[in-house]
Amino acid sequence: MLPNQNIKPNKVLILALSGIGDALMFTPALQLLKKNLPDTEFDALVMYKGVEQIYNRLPQIDNVLFYDFLNSNFISALKFLFSVRKKYDITINVYPSNRKEYNIISFFIGAKIRAAVNYLRQSKRNFNFLNTNLIAEIDTLHNVEENVKLSEIVTQKKTDKIPELLFPLNEEDISVSTNFLTENEISEDQIVVGFHPGCSTLKNHIKRRWEPEKFAELASKLSAEFNAIIFLFGGKEEKELRILIIEKSNAEKIIEVSAGNIAQSAAVMKRCDVFVSNDSGLMHIAASQKLKIVSIIGPTNTNYIHPWKTEYKTASLNLECSPCFYYSPKPLECHREDVKFKCIKELSVESVFEKVKGYLI
Predict the structure, then answer these.
(1) What Cα–Cα distance (Å) separates residue 10 from each residue in 36, 38, 75, 285, 318?
(2) Average pLDDT for 131-150
(3) Per-residue pLDDT tens for 45-89?
(4) CA 127, chain centre distance (Å)
């Protein structure tokens, strides 16, 4: 609980230093924070451009501070942190952020109240003791629910109804989407299925990806049975992945979506009848736009990351060893002796196809 129950913070800094999906899963908590503390200024510190684009659109955020910690040197980072030191009453480390670097950043910023999660694994090793107000991590809770618990430390108010993810689109985004659909001759009566075959590659998370050859085969089956058009989404760094799927697939019409920014991609995404995705930030963007989602999940704990408040199905083998990925700085690894990452490698095209088919018939 807060040291002073009557505290009314003037300025709060949200430390949203992890990726797009994690940042989006904090937006329900952010809505509750602003609702309960309408006169408080909420700023956000981010280090990914995609997160900056999303948070700049949120009416609950007053200022977005972007700093590329990953590609800066120690002296430059220190100068930046000095520029924001002692300017905030409270900092909140968005869940998940079980890294010593994030806790050190929060500590250095110097807010009297530093809210964070007390992780079940490697918490002390990652300097969580540098925070002043901790909530206990619970493996059965969704990331959104953990973040709402964090917000309750600050507001001192419980909530019975948790909001949806928030990623507002504007008229320009919709116009870009409309032009894209027109240029590619996509009519209203055609079936469109979106794919995101990528995901983060940090900490060996590339092993969470379903093979591109299987995405290609899935595209072929959806094209043959439903005459579906396939939209391929993803960042610039995933272009080769998308090209490989196009080359391997027999789908009659498969289109690489190249929008100017993440909001424009989200606007195009809204045209999809179903969105098929690995465990990724784009899966949560799809959830924010209320799409029907088939999530392809291997080693991840689905309690944490299933699409929030939208219709979804999970394609998973549900092996006895799953889930094996929890929030810690350790790289993703598999301890099976038969097939490494069997949970994703042996997930069949047919099983995913049946999940998608259920939304199309």
Answers:
(1) 13, 10, 29, 31, 46
(2) 95
(3) 999 999 999 999 999 999 999 999 999 999 999 999 999 999 999
(4) 24
Cβ-contact 209, 240 below 8 angstroms: no
Chain-centre distance for alpha carbon 11: 25
User: How many domains does the structure of the chain reveal?
Assistant: 2
Pure H helices in 289-348: 302-305, 342-345
pLDDT of residue 1: 40
* pLDDT score of 6 more than 60: no
* Cα–Cα distance measured from residue 100 to residue 104, given in angstroms and rounded to the nearest whole number: 6
For residue 269, tell me if it sits in a domain: yes
d(CA 3, CA 246): 57
Residue 49: give the domain boundaries.
11-155
Closest C-alpha among 328, 294, 313, 293 to residue 119: 328
**Inside any domain, residue 3:** no
Q: Is 293 found in the same domain as 238?
A: yes
* Rg (alpha carbons) of the chain, rounded to whole number: 21
| Residue 3, pLDDT score | 47
Tell me the per-residue pLDDT of 201-224, one tens digit each, with 9 for 90 and over. Answer: 777 888 889 999 999 999 999 999
What's the CA gap between 17 and 123, in Å, rounded?
17
| Cβ count within 10 A of residue 233 | 27
Last residue of a domain, one of 155, 186, 209: 155
Which tokens sit at 263? 């909001």
Average pLDDT, stretch 92-116? Answer: 95
